Amino acid sequence: MFNNIILRDTTKDEWCGIRSKIKKRVEDTMGSYPAGSDISSKTEIVKKYEQNGLTYIDFRYHVIDGIWNNGVCVLPEGFCKEKEYTAILAVHETNFGPGKMQVVTEPGSFEQAYGYELARMGYVIVAVDQYGFGDSVCPGGPTPDFNLEQYLADFMGKYPDWSIDGLRILQHKKAIDAAQSFDFVKLKNEFGAIGNSQGGRGTLFITAFDERIKCAVVSAGVSPNATNAYRIVKHDRPLNPALSQNMTKDGRSQWEYEEFIALCVPRAVLFIEPLHDDYNPHTMATISCIYNAFGVYKLLDVSEKVALYAHGDGHKTIRPVRELAYGWLKRFM
Asked: What are the tens digits of pLDDT across the range 135-157?
């Protein structure tokens, strides 16, 4: 079902060429925005407020053409403007109301409150809405009559040669750009990233395509194409139309998640995967992808920078598992 990324006799010098070919295959399926599109960088501060001892700064930033996105930067308690901070990109999972606020609201409200808990530990947090969620749809988030399918179809009508995956990667790249442009905080040039479910997938994607991400935690974010064909073909077509079309034609994908993971090497990535996940029930396929990518980490002598924690807690991350994730970030940031 899955292929080796490298052979036993593959050398370090050969990896660069192999990586370039993998990256091109992935990029070919994601497509691109039209030449001449406006991708200029613009950032506006919307408001600043205090909550539970933390400082929240809402901002909006330009993504492409007429598409802007909303984000929030959370400063830790006792914030000092003269100090240089490590920033973490906290990526929310599928939700149709809170969007980015899911990860920066205290744990009593949401179990995936990575941003809130990491801000309590002294990190600066950046969280933005993924396209189709939260304020990216409209101020205050989607209304009860919101039709996500139609919303995504409208995007594809405007950008027929692109994909939602491609747009979301650009959203996160430009969120990092925006954070680095803030004049109210000094940030190191290297970021961490963390997310669960759709947020884990988004974390994996931005780590693969932006080398400013030094360390990542991908929770329930690896859903191999081969064992999720039904989702790719039926439900998730706008995410990557070219991939969906190819799998509809002959059941094959142009790339597999083991290759996507390999694009992250040599950055540190912790994978947290449930052994019984209703959304991604083929656990061994997921483990196979991570194990195959491990060969590239070994080849480049950075085998300590990848880890897998498999658990029986389902599609969530309970407190002790989150603490494991935070320890990983602390170790490599």
From this structure: 888 887 888 888 888 888 899 99
Residues 31-64: tens digit of each pLDDT: 999 999 999 999 999 999 999 999 999 999 999 9
Gyration radius of the chain over CA positions: 19
Tokens of 248: 């509809």
Q: What is the dihedral of CA 104, 108, 114, 118, to 10 degrees?
A: 80
The CATH number of residue 76's host domain is 3.40.50.1820
Residues counted in the chain: 333
Q: What is the domain extent for residue 321?
A: 12-332
pTM above 0.90? yes
Q: Within a domain: residue 131?
A: yes
Cα-Cα-Cα-Cα torsion 226, 232, 238, 239, nearest 10 degrees, comes to: -40
User: Do 263 and 209 form a contact (C-beta atoms < 8 A)?
Assistant: yes
The total number of structural domains in the chain stands at: 1
| 223 assigned to some structural domain | yes
Strands of the 43-51 sheet, one edge to the other: 43-51, 54-64, 67-75, 124-128, 84-91, 186-196, 213-219, 268-274, 306-311
